[in-house]
């Protein structure tokens, strides 16, 4: 009996997804290996290739290796070392799973320490390996509870109706459990978006729709928040706008394909259930307070589900509130389609300003959460699903989605540029004061 249990445990362990380790890259302990592993970790933390490449080049200069040539793509980092004999190019694939918020914060802290202290490359590589294999801060129960809060929070932002609230709670618990269990099995993770979208749509159409008269898509969309590629599409638009054509185009194709998989799952569920996509009866809308309560729930959900670092919840809430308030301001000034431009233009300097405080977490954490509220991933998902079902007005929804993406990318570029210019001006002012004091 004991042998049978051990065999079953070994079979289950074989199904679990394990991190892929490049033995050749792991064997290196020099500066090129350190820079390559840093780049792979930053890509796994959902950072744009242009930002990753700039950081890695500055890091190479800091370690007295300005001769290294760095090339960054969305899925790998290439480091060419001309001093080796013969000259060789090392490849560092970014094929590990996306980093949690606590892991992203640890990577950013490690980068700052490398710049400040010039830590030996071998020690950096050891710490990066420890960060990748580190477990989440919260257990499965709190993670599922966090996903439920995420679902309810986004539901209050996207579709704040009274009858939909219990639906969001149930769907959040179901999808959160599916995500937690399927993340341990590599095979299921490949078809997880389609399978999850099909399952929740079938449940809504067969069990909930007769009781809750609301649009199926707007009931389903909040529960699929972790699968919506809004952040990917926004980063793709930023990369295309900044001249990173290959990276932006490949990321854009991936984001659209992810939306297509989700739309297919929903359309398949609707087809099997035989229910129409759009309901002519709308639920009772909650007041203007509902989105603000939703943002509070979203911040708590992110903190638990993505294992945010200790003490970062209030800063995540700060970033979400600034992003949403800036979007509302943009809606009043330039309309809903361009509100993302104003939101990104305001939230990036606001987050970088808060990041200068000692108690604040890394800016990457706050910006990642803020981008989730800015990006119109749910809008694109609804548009593609309506197009698959032949609903009128679906094409207009898709066009508005891509228009919003372009507006957000322009706002992000302007916000990042203003932040860099302001930082340079402040540093120049301080250097001028120091020089004046020295001459005096």
Automatic annotation (TrEMBL):
Pfam families: ThrE (PF06738). The chain crosses the membrane at residues 138-158, 164-183, 190-208, 220-240, 252-274, 286-305, 312-330, 336-355, 364-385, 397-418. Keywords: Membrane, Transmembrane, Transmembrane helix. It comes from the Bacteria. InterPro entries: ThrE-like_N, ThrE/Ser_Exporter. Residues 35-272 form the Threonine/serine exporter-like N-terminal domain. Belongs to the ThrE exporter (TC 2.A.79) family. This is Threonine/serine exporter family protein. It comes from Microbacterium aoyamense. The lineage of its organism: Bacteria, Bacillati, Actinomycetota, Actinomycetes, Micrococcales.
